[in-house]
Specification:
Strand content: under 5%
Oligomer: single chain
Number of strands: 0
Distance between the termini: 62 Å
Structural class: mainly alpha
Order of helices and strands: HH
Radius of gyration: 26 Å
Helix content: 25-40%
């Protein structure tokens, strides 16, 4: 839709739980708002639209952090010992 928003990533955690109240601009049909934004760069993003985009960015950053933590929890091949200190050491791949 061509919305110009500046989002500060360090303040995403302060996002309110509920969206701001709707304004008259929020009730204008999307195809009219898109045309107005293209032609006149008007109207700017409403507080409700800014809240929605910030909420999306917050969810994306949360899911990214969650995925990164899951990747780091996986054991690397170098961490798993191939032999045990007890038992037969001649066959390191033997299950005991």
């Amino acid at each position: 839709m061509g919305i110009d928003l500046e989002i500060e990533l360090n303040k995403l955690g302060e996002l309110p739980l509920y969206p701001p109240r709707r304004r008259l601009v929020d009730l204008i049909p999307t195809f009219i708002v898109s045309w107005l934004r293209l032609k006149y760069s008007w109207p700017k993003a409403s507080p409700r639209e800014a809240w929605a985009v910030s909420g999306l960015m917050l969810r994306v950053s949360y899911q990214t952090l969650r995925a990164v933590s899951l990747v780091y929890e996986q054991a690397t091949p170098g961490e798993v010992p191939l032999t045990t200190s007890t038992g037969d050491m001649s066959d390191p791949f033997r299950w005991s």
